[in-house]
Amino acid sequence: DQEGGRVQRLRSGASLLPAARAYGALHDRQGGRYAEAVSRAAGWLMASELRALGMDLSFAPVLDLDSGCSGVIGDRAFHGTPAVASRLAGAFAAGMHGAGMRAVGKHFPGHGSVRGDSHLLLPEDERPIDEIRDRDLLPFARLAGPQRDAGGAFVDALMTAHVRYSSVDSLPPTYSSYWLQQELRTRIGFSGAIISDDLSMQGAADLGDMGSRVDAALDAGCELLLVCNDRPAAIAALERLSQRGRLAPDCDWSRLAPFAVGQGPPADVASWALSVARELVSAD
Fold it and tell me: How far is the C-alpha of 120 from the C-alpha of 281, rounded, in Å?
């Protein structure tokens, strides 16, 4: 998670990027073209630095909307307006692609309209599906649909939200074939990889032990499962994956193989870091 702001796991030796809301504020002050250029440069800088360190992937950009009620999303979102959030997140993704890194949008189908923190509980969103489609789902549909922007403004993978959309399905998207198959694969037309959010979070705990969570996420359509900060749970997840034949070399890696890009080129990160950092400081 190298988004910038409060969610930036690597700090020492890396450029400190602002939270995504800074690009939205820049958009409102100085216009979309300039804000998109800065967002694109920040995406390139982040991805270039990670690649120079031998890292293949960052879970960014955030496609959630800033609806003014979610503390856990809040300034991690680019904007509260779907069209603006889509353009700024798309520009960030284009910068990542320019550095040779795939982009991962999150948290499908939108985590920005609930107050609860899914690290601590399973939040509930009671809105009807049409309202979610008309607002929260728009950035996902624009950046994850079958028509890919020639300039790189699209995402290659999506991470699920641990939120219960109770008027749509009793299961959160991580465990919901409705959300992942009917809504994402069929209606939106997404063909990339689906990644679960951390299965050790409390928002994912309703299904019981880690083996049950792994089963439900795989059956719903997740292809990469995150289990973070809990070694026994990670071991339990690996054991269940092994039992199901979902560890290499037995599983189908076709959607995940493109994400392994290896060591990045010796890009001149330092000069870019200085120029981009100046722009970002003035934007924040």
Answer: 32
Angle at 72 between CA 232 and CA 230, to 5 degrees: 5
Q: How much is the pTM?
A: 0.88
Q: What pLDDT was estimated at residue 259?
A: 72
- Please determine, for residue 83, whether its predicted confidence score (pLDDT) is greater than 90: yes
Token output for 9: 């796991």
Q: What is the pLDDT of residues 51-64, one digit of tens each?
A: 888 888 899 999 99
Q: Which CATH class is domain 56-87+101-251?
A: alpha beta
Which residue in 64, 197, 198, 215 is the catalytic one? 197
Measured distance CA(38)–CA(249) in Å, rounded? 41
Q: Where are the domains of the chain?
A: 56-87+101-251
Measured between its terminal Cα atoms, the distance across the chain in Å is: 20
* Unique residue bearing structure tokens 């008309």: 134
Active site residue 107: no
Cis peptide preceding 249, ω within 30 of 0: yes
Taking only the tens place, the pLDDT of each residue in 101-127 is 999 999 999 999 998 788 888 889 999
**Is 206 among the residues known to form the active site?**
no
d(CA 107, CA 112): 9
278: CB partners within 8 A, 6+ apart: none
Tokens for 262, please give them: 């290896």
pLDDT recorded at residue 207 = 86
Q: Which of 1, 117, 119, 169 is catalytic?
A: 119
